[in-house]
Request: fold
Amino acid sequence: MSPISAARTRGRPGGSSGAELLAVARQVFLASGYAGATMDAVASGAKISKQTLYRHYPSKDVLYAAVVRDWVDQGHDRMRPHVQALLDAPGLAEGLVRLARVMQAGILSPPVLQMRKLVANEAERFPEVAADYLERSWNRNQHMLAEALRELGDRGELRVADADGAAVAAEQLTWLAIAAPLNRLTLQGGRTVGGGRDGGELEAVAAEAVATFLGRFGAGE
Amino acid sequence: MSPISAARTRGRPGGSSGAELLAVARQVFLASGYAGATMDAVASGAKISKQTLYRHYPSKDVLYAAVVRDWVDQGHDRMRPHVQALLDAPGLAEGLVRLARVMQAGILSPPVLQMRKLVANEAERFPEVAADYLERSWNRNQHMLAEALRELGDRGELRVADADGAAVAAEQLTWLAIAAPLNRLTLQGGRTVGGGRDGGELEAVAAEAVATFLGRFGAGE
DNA sequence: GGTTTTGCGTACTGTCCAGTACTATTAGGC
DNA sequence: GCCTAATAGTACTGGACAGTACGCAAAACC
Reply:
């Protein structure tokens, strides 16, 4: 399945290969963007020769596509346990705030921000890569959250009636929690998140997000 | 003030200069990004020689900074009349929906999206340009909207008590209206907005945004 | 131990582009 | 009418980088 042969059988022993190579390439792409990333940097970072790199991936384009696909594959179900935790939480509001904080920590973390930026930048040249990222990394998680919210609706804990309503609720909760800080981080360099006083700001955003969310979708009248 | 001498006094007659030159440069930067934009393309687009271009702007960096600054200057108060219209609107909900639609039309239009992308991409290399853009183009409008919402709060039409509450309300209204479509457009190529069936989708997003907004900040209990 | 496959290292080609040099040309100042 | 400033046009320099060529080294397989 992998574009690189699974086991090295013969030949001179080399440096990184397979998943390690993709991890190195990912770091190079994330740090420098598509244009700024050089195949020399990937090769030397992986401690292989450029020749070997080109044997595994016949062009920079192919390597880029493989890096993004690999990333999406790895982050497949990282959200699921947290959505499950919302369903199991004793208090709804506390559970929602916790989930909002988890989404913030995930989406606003430097690697995820960098990957978003990379994919968005190359969306024009590689529309299929971008579409795959959007579908399997974003829409998938939104759908998962929507189903959980609908479950809470069925239980009578939220005013969420059908699948459409749940999709709207999931979308609004997500963006209330992350849009403002995401915008700030996007229009700045890659300042770190979670350290400093950003933590307090994020917590306030999450609390306000849940307050507004419950104003619309809360069951208590 | 302008980096280009205001009036050509002597010498051979040339092509575009001053504001026209910046408009041409803007188009080139927006269409191709910083790295993809070439000084040759700017020069030939403005029908001047590369020499003349370099006489006005001694480097690509300086030209870029001037383009962004010029853009921010031009779009300074484009939001103001629409915020005023909200204050003058007979029905609050209708006024909010109309404002939401205006924000969508503005921020999700191709040139604004492209400028966002450009500035975000070069935020690391030109942090001051990005900070200026964020402050004068984004925060300024948010502040304007927040003041209007506080005015509505003073009138008793919204549950907005102080400046902090108004800032939160402005931020949430904005993002409820534009975050989801902005995300989709960012993670895709530059598909047009406003044509096709996007219009209907945006209208639905605006309606849902206002419904949620009023659930939290509406005066009616 | 010979063959083959894989990989290393390095050098090279072709291309693109920012920025510069140089010459010829045109318009205004005096 | 000459001088000077600005410009056009074109060619050049220097650097970066994708992708290739080629000779050598090492490991597995028989």
